[in-house]
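Record type: monomer structure entry
Structure origin: computed from sequence
Chain ID: A
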Amino acid sequence: MHRVFDLIIPLYNKEYTIEKTILTALNQEYKFNKIFVIDDGSTDKSALVVNNLIKKYHHIELIKQKNRGVSFARNLGVQKSSADYIVFLDADDYLSKYYLKQINILVDKFNKKANIFSAKHSFENNDENKAKQKYSYSFSSFPLRSFLFKKNIICSSGLCLNRGIFEKFQFRNNIKIGEDIDFFLKIFSKEKLCWINNYLIFINKTAENRSDEFWEIPFFLINKKEMFTLYRSKLKKLILQLFYLKNYYSIHYKIKLFYPKYQNQFKELITEFNFFEKIFLVIVKTKLFEKFYKKKKNLEFVFFPNFIVNYFNIALNNIYYFLRNIFNHIIIDIRFKIFSRIY
């Protein structure tokens, strides 16, 4: 079935990458209907580069605005588009030439179940040979849980949405850090997700103004109360708590190691982090015991539950304090992967 996809590229001072970004979009086997480039007040030659491409490719449209942020640029692009499906791409990232063809297949398979479509992303160079491997597809009725344990299945680049989503949600304006995660958390509360298990989106980590400077708290971390009103069931609230806990680990570790001058800004978050960590340990111990008990229920030593409980308490507490001493976010990710298998 032929579907119409529009591409939205927010642009701010990317004169050295925007041409390659657009060319990877133009080189798709299944073509975009229109490509909207929203220039968010660039002060370099980005607009000139785009205008040179427009002379050759007439379905590219450059829209200029004063500098109002990436969220405003994305929302403006949605307003300008009339396509049923909208794809977003950052101005320094790239798409495999097979991306849109596979997204169209994905929509064919899951359009009655899901409204969020994506593919795995990689920080490696654009490797078309890897992209041509056999394709497989996954579906999740609980996107937040999938995103918690498989973070590379969705990002702001290569995100494809049914435009009906924008009748309920938009990117929140005036956010400097974490606007994409804030948007993901909102749409995950109501919509289902499917993705391609192949690397068809390539993130450019060396882009000229992609910065690791930590100068304010990511918005989604200080907007928890609103998010919890969107997630109704106890299980979903639990997973949302675990999502925040995982991010507290990563950010606390990064602040402590690289940006100690920002510690005071994070006092409230660190207090919550310590509380969630204790809850998490209780959940893991409980789940491990339940899993172990069910699997071994036909064996003789099931009649010694106290022994089993004591064994797991000692083992897990030792692991727990060991991890706390190391306090390494890579180790924390391993713990969450183990927990995902239990669920």
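Annotation 1: Confidence is low (pLDDT under 50) at residues 296-305, 326-332, 338-343.
Annotation 2: The longest helix spans residues 267-295.
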